[in-house]
Amino acid sequence: MRYLWNACCKSGRKVSNPAHNQAFFMNHLAHCLLSGESESVLLGNFIGDYVKGNAWKHYPAGVQYGLLLHRHIDSFTDVHPLARRSVHRLRPVAGRYAAPVTDVLYDHLLAIHWDKFTPVPFDVFTEKTYRQLVSLTAQMPPELQERLPRMVAGRFLHGYSKREGLAWILDRFSVRLGNKFDAALVSGHFFEKIDHYAEDFNSFFPELLLSAADFRPLSDIIT
Q1: Tally of CB atoms within 10 A around 12
Q2: Residue 196's closest CA among 108, 86, 77?
Q3: CA separation (Å) from 92 to 44, 95, 182, 185, 202?
Q4: Which of 30, 121, 191, 218 sits a CA distance of 20 to 30 A from 54?
Q5: How far apart are CA 217 and CA 209, in angstroms?
């Protein structure tokens, strides 16, 4: 898969921060969609896993909103019964990484059920998002500034839409974590049980859409 291979470091070099190993394979597609029309919110949502603690306060208001929205999306997902059911179902094959792996699997389900959740065609949305992210690169953390050109050249959002692309992402995720889970086993299990995961996701995601749309973190943050 050319676009997925280009989206990652070809050297296979591990990054120094273990959290960034997970961040690099996060559910980018969902976070981008849930950002709405604001480029500032998109930026904050996209870099959310790289901005820790109170560091969000050092960004402009719209980006602050996106950073806090990112955290809200993650928290909402972590405690939602349907998402937790998917995590529980996945745990025998993904172990302690079942939750972040479920996030990635949910991006595949979002891609293949795209028309249920937005009237904007998938390719129109993704191409617009690539252009926006490129224009925002200079405001991203250094690690993302380095990676984003390869990610966009590889059309990384499209990678979630194909079975072979998802399998490749899971494999790269596993490698970066030191092969802590068997990517082929996870992929095989997921596609064998995909109807069950899709049932969870298709009931969960409309609630996440509403929650993200209603999110109001602080009254003095204006987008």
Answers
A1: 9
A2: 86
A3: 34, 6, 11, 10, 23
A4: 30
A5: 16
